[in-house]
Amino acid sequence: MQKSNPVIYFEIPVNDLKRAVKFYKNVFNFQFEEEIIDEYEMALFPFYDNEMGISGALAKGDVYKPTTDGVIIYFRTNDIDEALRNVISQKGEIIYPVTKNEKYKFLVAEFLDSEGNRIALQQFL
User: Fold this and answer.
1) Chain segment 49-108, per-residue pLDDT in tens
2) Do the domain assignments include residue 4?
């Protein structure tokens, strides 16, 4: 049996793909590759074969509904304060302020993106 991390991909629902791409590009400086997959509009987050972690896409279509309920995606950042400033500058909203986890030595925060999704940030100390 091959051992690997169980999660390999995610999709963040969006109503307006161009607005969402602009938001994530300006918050995190991500570059996206846009394409149609199974008749749905997708903007693929960066993916590097030989690096740790997973990747995913912003996804637009009738089955994709932005929400604050359900699964929360955590994005790693080296500067949580800068990321949150970028969120605010892009008209996002901070919904859980920066909080330090002493036991595991990281900072977390949550925000609403341009589409109304609840998204989290994590910075290792």
Assistant:
1) 888 889 999 999 999 999 999 999 999 999 999 999 999 999 999 999 999 999 999 999
2) no
- CB-CB neighbours of 122 under 10 Å: 15
* DSSP element (H, E) containing 82: helix 80-89
Q: At what angle do helices 80-89 and 17-28 cross, to 10 degrees?
A: 140
- Here the CATH number for the domain that contains residue 71 is 3.10.180.10
Contacts of 24 (CB under 8 A, 6+ apart): 30, 32, 45, 58, 113
Number of domains the chain is built from: 1
Domain around 29: 9-124
